[in-house]
Amino acid sequence: MLENSPTQTAAAWLGAFAKALDTSDISAATDLFLDDCYWRDLLAFTWNIKTSEGRDAIRDMLAATLAQTAPANWRLSGEAKAKGGLVEAWFTFETAAGRGEGCLRLVDGKCRTLFTVLSDLRGFEEKSGENRPLGVRHKADRARETWSEAKRRREEELGHAEQPYCVVIGGGQGGIALGARLKQLGVPTVVLEKNARAGDSWRNRYRSLVLHDPVWYDHLPYIPFPAHWPVFTPKDKMGGWLEMYARVMELDYWTGSTCAEASYDADEKVWTVEVDRNGERVTLKPKQLVFATGAYGPPRMIPLPGADSFPGEILHSSQYADGRRFHRKKVAVIGAASSGHDVSVDLWESGADVTMIQRSPTTVVKSDTLMELAFEIYSEGAMARGITTEKADLIVASTPFALMPESQKALYDRIRKRDADFYEQLAASGFALDFGEDETGLMMKAYRTGSGYYIDVGASDLIIDGQIKVRSGVSIKSLTPAGILFDDGSEMAADAIVACTGYQSMHETVAQLVSREMADKVGPCWGLGSDVRGDPGPWQGEPRNMWKPTAQEALWFHGGNLALSRFYSKYVALQIKARMEGIATPVYGVPANAGG
Amino acid sequence: MLENSPTQTAAAWLGAFAKALDTSDISAATDLFLDDCYWRDLLAFTWNIKTSEGRDAIRDMLAATLAQTAPANWRLSGEAKAKGGLVEAWFTFETAAGRGEGCLRLVDGKCRTLFTVLSDLRGFEEKSGENRPLGVRHKADRARETWSEAKRRREEELGHAEQPYCVVIGGGQGGIALGARLKQLGVPTVVLEKNARAGDSWRNRYRSLVLHDPVWYDHLPYIPFPAHWPVFTPKDKMGGWLEMYARVMELDYWTGSTCAEASYDADEKVWTVEVDRNGERVTLKPKQLVFATGAYGPPRMIPLPGADSFPGEILHSSQYADGRRFHRKKVAVIGAASSGHDVSVDLWESGADVTMIQRSPTTVVKSDTLMELAFEIYSEGAMARGITTEKADLIVASTPFALMPESQKALYDRIRKRDADFYEQLAASGFALDFGEDETGLMMKAYRTGSGYYIDVGASDLIIDGQIKVRSGVSIKSLTPAGILFDDGSEMAADAIVACTGYQSMHETVAQLVSREMADKVGPCWGLGSDVRGDPGPWQGEPRNMWKPTAQEALWFHGGNLALSRFYSKYVALQIKARMEGIATPVYGVPANAGG
Fold first, then answer.
1. Dihedral angle computed from the Cα positions of residues A211, A217, A221 and A225, in that order, rounded to the nearest 10 degrees
2. Cβ A351–B142 below 8 Å, yes or no?
3. Using CB atoms, which residue from B138, B367, B462 is nearest to A457?
4. Over the stretch B454-468, which tens digit does the pLDDT of each residue have?
5. Is A461 helix (H, G, I), strand (E, B) or coil?
6. What is the SS3 assignment for A283?
7. What number is the ipTM of this complex?
């Protein structure tokens, strides 16, 4: 009975922390943390997405941000839980700008990790639930403008008589999710989509494509997939959902619209965005510009010496849509990550003779295994325990990136044991496997380099069975009139080559549309600076440039898979809304080019 | 401490009831009911929608249905509640066909009302939640048919190479909700919509139309409106939602398609439905035919002697879409129910000089009042208390129609007191008010006659202010070259006439499309047989012919507002699915023409 309950322990800590902050006693606040401590903040203190690692970093951060943040009303949400030696509790608080929430994890009464996040802006909350709009004035009115008349007028005026506050380049899941958040916050926004219809970014891909992540992980904000939605969404069904979503959420979504060029006037603080809208030139003048052009930038082609002499077709995976024209053809697929596997299967299903050329080892995990061991927090079972998608997102976000490798390594130790037979067979086929330089597996590879992994939904069995052949550990010396010559002197006949060689960094799109200079100023996107191959240091603690202020004022990057698009769109939208409303947003952690 | 808790009381009753049914002791079962008792059953016992009133009726029903129903496993769901002298408890049970749920209400330990409903069919449950489809086989497959290929093939074959099991005539909210339910149950169904796009049944109506019911009452099944959806949905926004819904739910929804005629082959047990699909004649051969052509049948025009001499335009409210061409015109609106009010406001907003001709008194309730007093169970507050839309629907359905007048009268006593000033002013304007022959108000009028009421969203103030003029208590003797001559000898100048005179019964659509004979065999739809004007007896206890077997095998009526379409679509779909799967569905309560 002398021992405190987890809730008492958490309440005592939170009380002491609140008191230290109330009295601006930063030393007292940092004394509440362990030596090995982390504070991940999304906007609440830093107006940035920033993890402060260690007491010194936390002290510096608080010294810079505490006065303007004016945090108050810290309150536990529900009961704390003890897990191993850890006490975990969720809480809410308020700041000068709005409401926040967060999670604390204590060891021996001191804080190991703190997570704080700004949930909304005071006075600019979304109108939802019992604050939803009425939809009609219950009074006859000769000047009444109906919903559809108002919509038509806005569509006619936006970009012409009235300028949007924000332009989002790219209308895939990233642009659509962000467009929806901005709409709900009342930020006039135009989303530019190069294709003819919303959802075409999915429809235009190869015919057998099905999402590799399960439905619980893929919800968009505001309108979740219904309960009968399949676990793995086929690409055209996803396309249909996105098209419906953009329409029902009433986005100002310009199809057939590409950004030809953009420039920023630093004095006027306004962008000039030249748009080709179905052949018509429109000049937009937004205050904020978001690049949401996909998880990555332009397609990356590798040099293929002798390509001129090769008589067959050479295409990048982004151009690959239908394997049926390769029936009975010999096709070399360069690359052994997700798209390399998917394209190989599609080719095999189309009756092609497929060889995958693997240039470096791949992390492979069976989809079922991942579902069971890694996605439990996004599942029907989690929903039944009250862990909504929104809650699961916060739980995931509450762990600082620096601590992920530890738990991911433990996860992959389990996975490798569980699927040992599978890995043995795959290795025996000549396929080069790895689990990352530090054995941390797929998700760390995704955050660090965005490449080199595959969630197995069937290709690996074809490789094991020899139906898809693999050439591993060789480099291409040149193409020849007959096919491919490798640097070990061996040759391979090929009628066509599909380069599944990935994409460049998103900041290359800035170089294309704005200038090389601005792209270099901003620096690359993604990567954590983990110092593994493909992710050079220095250590960043967060993905570079994503969803947060960049070295270029009023320029933002948004994207990622459906889950990242869903979660981080909220915080990109809050940052843009705050700027639109003139709320002070002093950014802590000067966003300089993060190198890489 | 001697008194039993409500849960103990309910458990004791349910235990005794279960035991009586288990042992086929029908007398023991009926002895558990009060003299004044009601058992409302949706399919579980009767394969009908049927209220048995009094112990004799319950005895007869059980004698006919108990053996084949084989109910078992009766279990309370959660705690029972005591309200006044009533103990209320919810429960689940099973039958030979599937799972059921229900509600019992006890007075002094005996049953006043029992409600039982079939929730699903064993072996044919909807694939949802953790039983949702996988969406892909995680195995490469050269014979793979993708989602979009399968969809295209089905669309090409359905109605040609493959006949639908069910055809639904009418693609408004009723047909769409039912189509979605049938889709989820795997019943091949074609929904015929005469307009070019799903949702046009809303879009084509007058410009200022906004739903009079609040959003919480209007959800469709499977995909609820999102939390930011306005309380009152503008008609075009509703149209957009329905269009999205039909597409995302993957209905086989044929736009531009009208049923030209239909006939039933009683020997072959198959319908022949001649369809004009965008000018192409298609013959469908379904086993089941559903009329979902709107809450009512064809427009009802009243005789207007001298119409030939009247030079102006005469139109029915169903043809009225835009008042702007009546600017500065004198317009007579015949009828003072919902459409009469809405059209009058639209005309007034368009600058017309409007006179409403009221032929009989109208029940008027202010929308705000109704929201607060009558719709509480469908509200943000109810949701917060765990009363989902599905639960609210069951709560509403658990009260037999025979007991509704009592509670409705009490409700309208409150409303008339609360809004006494409003009603006084409205009466002073010459508008004839009533609350139904037995003072039971709007909802009873809706169920009994489907006419004679208005939820005030602004028109009444215009009437009070004299902006919309009213001629009440007069009949039209004839039209004249100048306007209207009334039977009291007075005349009124008019440039145009809009007849807001309602609709005929849905069974008149059967007369149009099948035969007079079949329409007469089936008899009218709606009405309870309450013996008030417009709803002649005999007493039915349930709406006539709606959502349940009719006197014509394989012919069904479905419809009503969004809430009724949502709720009863489930039970229409279960009845059709059971027939498709060959499950025995002996209907209790021979569906003869219910007169009227």
1. 70
2. yes
3. B138
4. 999 889 999 999 999
5. helix
6. strand
7. 0.92
